[in-house]
Give the backbone structure.
Amino acid sequence: MMRIGQGFDAHRFTAGKPLVLGGVLIPHPFGLEAHSDGDVIIHALCDALLGAAGLGDIGLHFPDSDKRFLGIDSRLLLQKVHTLISSRYAIVNIDITLLAQVPKIAPFVEAMRRTLADDLMIEPSDISVKATTTEHMGFIGREEGLAAMAIVLLESKI
Ligand code: MG
């Protein structure tokens, strides 16, 4: 049996914080405001995985009221989500879209695919990471922040 899940996340740019996307440090003057490191790609991906498995969402498992998750590396959240789903489901493929006017992420896409694949114990070829601008429209176009969407296909192991 196959199950599909989708996730979405958005965060505002803030000064004085590193920008981490898909688990990869990206050179940029702004990071993302968040309780965690603000990695919108990983947050959207976690929600897609949890959604496909029918296990709620990232806020349910890692509440932003919990001090244990303050400033946390989102890769740790992704690894925990993987633990939650991996006994019942195998990941078939993942497709991620980053919505960003800036920065350009093309030079970092392969590193993101490798990083995410490592955390989920799959192959980089099972993960697509791409990006689009919004043609200068809306909060993304005004360079106020970033958003990401993820879709995941799971296959039941049992
Ligand atoms: Mg988030």
Summary: The pocket of magnesium ion is lined by residues 9, 11, 34, 40, 43 (CB under 6 Å). The longest helix spans residues 40-53. Helices lie at 40-53, 58-61, 74-86, 109-120, 138-141.
